[in-house]
Amino acid sequence: MELRQLRQFVTVVELASFTAAAKHLGIAQPAISATIKKLEQQLSIQLLQRNERKVSLSAEGQVLYQHAIQLLKQAEDAEQAMQSLKGLESGTVTIGIPSMMGSYFFPPLLMGFKSLYPQLNLSVIDTGTELVRKKLLNGELDLGIVVTHDVPPELHCEPIYKGELLACCSQDNPLSQQNSISHQEFLDHELVLFREGYFHHKVIEQISREQQRVPQVSFQTNLIPLIKSIVARDFGITTLLSMVVQPGDALHSLSFNPPFFLELGLAWRRDAYMSRANQRFKDFVLENCKPNSDEGIKAN
Length: 300
Prior knowledge:
Helices cover 42% and strands 27% of the residues. It has 3 domains: 3-84, Winged helix-like DNA-binding domain superfamily/Winged helix DNA-binding domain (Arc Repressor Mutant, subunit A, Orthogonal Bundle); 92-160 and 263-299, Periplasmic binding protein-like II (D-Maltodextrin-Binding Protein, domain 2), CATH 3.40.190.10; 162-261, D-Maltodextrin-Binding Protein, domain 2, CATH 3.40.190. Strand 1 (48-50) and strand 2 form a beta hairpin. It starts with a helix and ends with a strand. It is of the alpha/beta class.
């Protein structure tokens, strides 16, 4: 097997299409089809199930896919290790960050790092903490923000932020006369939620299980400005971290009773090679985050 074959195989699987994979890799479709066919002949195994609409993995192909992901990541790590010997003249920092942290906590850190290392590229993957954790474990990400209370042993995690998760409603909503809200009362209202995979969604799932109720979800979106706009117009209530609620949002925030506090940390794989660019960014973030009496751990 060659890395070229594995890379093409993984791309076909992830895009579920020979045509899309060929376009993504910039090669002709017959060439990528021939590569996969040759790989199947070498292994004497059918790796893919083909039909008119899409391509899917066979049981044997699923096993190879998991190994291929790891092998390609190891090859990338080796290449980065060689590149890092040249110094920090070039490189890319890639980090997975949930939208609230990416919009309200990380901008000063990203700009501060970029001002110190203008030659390095920054790539931010906006996704929920659950998917960040998954991508860290399978080698798709080197750095990511995760919830600190549920970190698998394969990852190392350093806390960088702790804040309260608040209920938010319109200033015209009767709840605006309150300073706190019970879990049961929160579920009495139509909800505007982040999609599954985000820590806010997990909180609502936890509340619903405790109260043995099904939440009334009227909107689901990961767009923070849209969530704020919907709630401000009193089409539902939501949950937001305390740092996200701004004076001009036309929102009223309430603490839960009992309250929810969320701790997030910067995580990376314990056994993985880390490029000098990623190492420098990790060190920069940890050096510039310190305990804060109001929100636990927060950027300077």
